[in-house]
Amino acid sequence: MSSPPNRLARAQHESGLLNALQRGIEKEGLRVDLQGRLARTPHPPALGSALTNPRITTDYSEALLELITGTHPSVESLLQELEETHRFVARNLDGELIWNQSMPAELPPEEEIPIGWYGTSNSGMLKHVYRRGLAYRYGKNMQCIAGLHYNFSVPDPIWDHIGIEGISLEHQRTKGYLALIRNFTRYSWLLMYLFGASPAVSRAFLGDRPHSLHDFDAETLYLPWATSLRMSDLGYQNKAQSDLELCYNDLETFLQRMYTAVTTPWPAYERIGTHRNGEWIQLNTNILQIENEYYSAIRPKRSTNRGERPATALAERGVEYIEVRCLDIDPWSPVGIRAESCRFIDAFLLYCAAEPSPFFPANGDCPISKNNFATVVREGRKPGLLLRRGENEISLRDWGEEIIECIRPYAELLDQAAGHQRHVAALELQLKKIRNTELTPSARVLHAMRERQATLHNFTLQLSREHHETLVQGPLEPELEQRYKDEAAASIREQHEIEAADTEPFDEYVARFHAALRAP
User: Residue limits of the Glutamate--cysteine ligase domain (predicted)?
Assistant: First the structure.
C-alpha cells in the first residue's frame, strides 16, 4: 500500500480534498485598565450578552474575554475574522486593553476577582455556579490564565484515503480523530517548544504557593529553560484529576472514564459542599462538575444541542472535530496567533491524522508522552535536553528535526492545494527554532525583558498598548461594524427572552442537567 502522503496527493488531485479542511479559533484575553490591572468592570454592554453572543463571550472571570471565530477553509479568512472581531472589541473598551499574554495581569486579592456573570436565567446561572465551583476548587488566580484554542476538522472522505476503517462514517470519523489525538499526545511536546511563550510569571500570581522558580527581578519569577509555565503544574494543578488516564484508544473507554469522573465524589469537594448561605457554590462534589472541567492539551469534540451534555453528544453521534488547547497567546501578535503558526499547526495535525497511530499499551507510551510534555514546558530549551521515545532516549533537537521532515510532505500537499508555498515556509521557520533555541517565543520574551530591563508586567503592558492602538486604528468597514453592533444588541434581547421564559426552579434545572448525562 502506498504511503499516506501519496494517497492524499491522489485524493487532492482527484477531488481537491485538502481545500475542505476547516479550522476555527477561540482566543482568550483579560480586560485590564491602562496600568495593566485586572478590570473590575462588568462585561461591556456594547459587546452584547456573554451568554448568547456567538462571537464575543467570557470564560472564567468577568474580565476574561473569549473571542470566537466561525470555521474557515483558509488561514487567511480565519485570521481576517479574528482580527475584525478584535478591532470591534478594541473600539468598545472604554479605557481598557486586552492583556496579550497567557499569564495574568496584576491581579487583585482573590476575593475581589469577579466571576463571569451570565444573567438570571437557569442556563446563565448554571454557567456562573460552575465557575464558582472552579474558584473554590482551584482558586481564582489560576482561572485567569489565558490561552488560544485551535479547532480543526478534515473532510469525511479523507478517512478512506488514509486507511481508517469503520462500519459507518460516524465510526470511521471517530476512529480517525482518536488516532489523530493519540499521535498528537505523542508529539505535542513539539508545539510547546515551538509556540510556548510563558516562561515567566508575576510573583504576586503565585502568592504563598510553594514553587521552584527563580528570581528574574523583584516582581517576576521564571525558569531559565521553560517554554510554557501556563501548561506546567504551576498553571494547572488538580490532584483530583491526576489519576484520569484518558489516552484515547477508543471512545467507549474515554466516555466511561469521563462518566466516572463526573459522577464520583471527591472528599475535598464534599467538604466544600454545594451550598453556602443558601446559595449554590458548585454544581456537585464530584471529581469533575462537568466534562469541560477536565484540563487537557486536546479534546475530541461534537457540537451539542441546547441542554445536551458533551459526553452524551459524543456517545450518540461520535467525534466531529478536535480542539487543541495547549497554545499560548503570541505576545507579538495583536490577535494572539500568526498566520505561519496556523499553517504549521494545520500541517502538524494533518500529519497526526494520516500517519499510523498505534494504541497506547497499558502503562506504556501515554505516561511517557505526558512526561515528555511536562519536561518541555519546564525546561524545553535546556541544552542537550533528552526525551523518552519508547525504551530509548533521544535529544529534543534530533527528534524535532525528524518530525519536521515527516511533516514536510503534508506541508507540500497543503501548498499545492492552496496554490502557494507558505506551509513549507512555515515549516522552515519552525526548523530554525529547533536548531536555535534563541528564536523560540519563550527565549524571545526573556531576552526582550532583559534588554528593556522590564518586569513581565511592564513588558506585556507596553505590547498590549501597542496592539490596542494597532487594532483601534485598523480599518473596520462601516457595514461590518454595524453588523457586530446588531449582533450584540440581538444577543442582549435573546438573553432577556430566555430569562423571561424561565419558569423552572434552578434546583430542578440542575437536577435535570445532571440527569441528562447518560451512562455509556
Answer: 12-364
Domain range summary for the chain, segments of one domain joined by + = 4-513
d(CA 507, CA 21): 43
pLDDT over threshold 90, residue 104:
yes
Say if CB 151 and CB 323 are below 8 A apart: yes
pLDDT at 2 over 80: no
The continuous run of DSSP H or E covering 115 comes out as none
For the segment 201-236, what is each residue's pLDDT rounded down to a tens digit?
999 898 888 889 999 999 999 999 999 999 998 765
How far apart are the C-alpha atoms of 205 and 209, rounded to whole Å?
A: 9
Q: How long is the chain?
A: 520
Return all residues near 127 (Cβ < 8 A) that are at least 6 apart.
51, 116, 118
Q: Which amino acid is at 285?
A: T
Could you list the beta-strand ranges (E) of 69-162. Answer: 96-98, 148-153
Q: If pLDDT is split at 50, 70 and 90, which confidence band does 363 have? A: low
Residue written as grid cell 503570541: 330
CB 274 within 8 A of CB 280: yes
Q: What percent of the chain has pLDDT over 90?
A: 86
Q: How many helices (H) and strands (E) does the chain have?
A: 18, 14
Per-residue pLDDT for 409 more than 90?
Answer: yes
Query: Can you give the pLDDT at residue 320?
Result: 97
Contacts within 8 Å (CB) and 24+ apart, 283-288: 283/126, 283/129, 283/130, 283/133, 283/510, 283/513, 283/514, 284/514, 286/261, 286/262, 287/240, 287/241, 287/244, 287/260, 287/261, 287/262, 288/240, 288/241, 288/258, 288/261, 288/262
User: DSSP for 297-365?
Assistant: SEEEE----TT--HHHHHHHH---EEEEEEEPP-TTSTTS--HHHHHHHHHHHHHHHHS--PPPPTTSH
| pLDDT more than 70, % of the chain | 97
Query: Mean pLDDT in the chain?
Result: 94
Report the C-alpha gap between 222 and 457 in whole angstroms. 13
Q: Return the closest-CA partner of residue 231 out of 183, 199, 194, 185.
A: 199
Are the beta carbons of 48 and 36 closer than 8 angstroms? no
Pairing state of beta strands 220-222 and 22-33? unpaired
Q: Name the residue type at position 112.
A: E
In whole angstroms, give the CA distance from residue 282 to residue 378.
32
Against a cut of 0.90, is the pTM above it? yes
CATH entry, 4-513, from 1.25.40.10, 3.40.50.880, 3.30.590.20, 3.40.50.11540: 3.30.590.20
The pLDDT score that the predictor gives to residue 4 is: 80
Cell readout for 235 is: 498553571
pLDDT digits (tens, 9 = 90+) for 151-203: 999 999 999 888 888 889 999 999 999 999 999 999 999 999 999 999 999 99
The band of 243, judged by pLDDT with boundaries at 50, 70 and 90, is low
For 410, phi and psi rounded to 5 degrees?
-75, -35
Q: For residue 228, what are the β-bridge partners?
A: 198
